[in-house]
Amino acid sequence: MLARPSLLVISMMFVGSAELRDARPAPPAGGLLVVANQKEHTLLVVDPDNRRELAKISVGVNGHEVIVSKDNRFAYVPIYGNSGVGKPGTDGSTIDVIDLQGRKLAATIDLGKPLRPHRAEFGTDGLLYVTAEMANAVDVIDPSTRKVLAEIPTGEPQSHMLVLSRDGRRAYTANVGAGSVSVLDLAKRSLVTTIPVAKSVQRISISSDGRRVFYARPGRATHRRHRYGHEQNRELDRIAGRGVCVGADSRWALVAGGQPCSKSSPCR
After folding, report:
1. Is 93 within 8 Å of 118 (Cβ atoms)?
2. CA–CA separation, 38 and 181 (whole Å)
3. Are the C-beta atoms of residues 21 and 42 closer than 8 Å to each other?
4. Distance, CA of 204 to CA of 157 (rounded, Å)
5. Are 64 and 78 in contact (CB under 8 A)?
6. Where do the structural domains in the chain lie, given as residue ranges?
7. Is 64 within 8 Å of 36 (Cβ atoms)?
8. Residue 74 pLDDT
9. CATH superfamily for domain 1-110
10. Are the beta carbons of 182 and 170 closer than 8 angstroms?
11. pTM of the model as a whole
């Protein structure tokens, strides 16, 4: 169960700092794996080399995603609630902060109101950006003070997933029920535009050079991976598939079950 595939549809990140390597004897050479386990309301710390669970830390109900700080000291788990997107249930309003060296809950960030926070990403400015579905926004958080600094409107409901450009200028959200992608200016903390893309859209990713944004349209049979130009905000092409990962050189995108669009296999 702990085999190390290259892609998983759960939240995880490798951690390999000197601090963590000194924190426990015989650390894995390849770093640690940090996994959000939403059904058990826990965060798992895993040694992927030896396929061994090292720690299980309780978090709120439910944490869907996890992001690790750039210094590898802390993991941040937005607490979404016990519902699905657009479905009735509890509305999360916090982010749990895990001390990865001590392997324990270090703090809980109070967002001040029910938001269903979901995907978190660190910007080049060191700030934490988190989708806030119930506010149709992205919250901006200072991890040093653990306070909310601002709220950037997305202009659409159910802003679920988030990617940031490497240069720190732009953020893109996948707005599930609206079937759109929002483009945000991080410096001005403002909405640039929204791009209608499908009846529904959930997953989103960006090439390392920031020139292409890929998104997924959920469906019973397939997901759709569409490409958008970073500056032009225009669609480039469509590829049918269930998942995507963009290579570090931005030349290749790995699409699970992918195939070109055709009359027999349309992408729309």
Report:
1. no
2. 26
3. no
4. 16
5. yes
6. 1-110, 114-268
7. yes
8. 97
9. YVTN repeat-like/Quinoprotein amine dehydrogenase (2.130.10.10)
10. no
11. 0.78
Structure tokens at 205: 């990713």
Tokens for 255?
Answer: 């699409």
State the Cα–Cα distance between residues 127 and 144, nearest whole angstrom.
9
Give the number of other Cβ atoms within 10 Å of residue 219's Cβ. 13
Read off the pLDDT band of 29 (50, 70, 90). low
What fold characterizes domain 114-268? Methylamine Dehydrogenase; Chain H (2.130.10)
Give the type of residue at 194.
T
CA distance to 2, 153, 217, per residue, from 104 (Å): 22, 33, 37
Separation of alpha carbons 242 and 215, rounded Å: 11
Q: What is the pLDDT of residue 225?
A: 43
Helix spans in the chain (H): 18-23
- What pLDDT is attached to residue 1? 39
Alpha-carbon distance 199 to 233, whole Å? 18
Nearest to 45 by CA among 62, 60, 61, 27: 27
Tell me how far apart the terminal alpha carbons of the chain are, to the nearest angstrom: 35
For residue 213, what are its two tokens?
A: 């944004």
Q: What share of the chain is helix, strand, coil (3-state, %, to 5)?
A: 5, 45, 50
3-state secondary structure of 149: strand
- Decide: helix, strand or coil at residue 69: coil
Domain 1-110 identical in fold to domain 114-268: yes
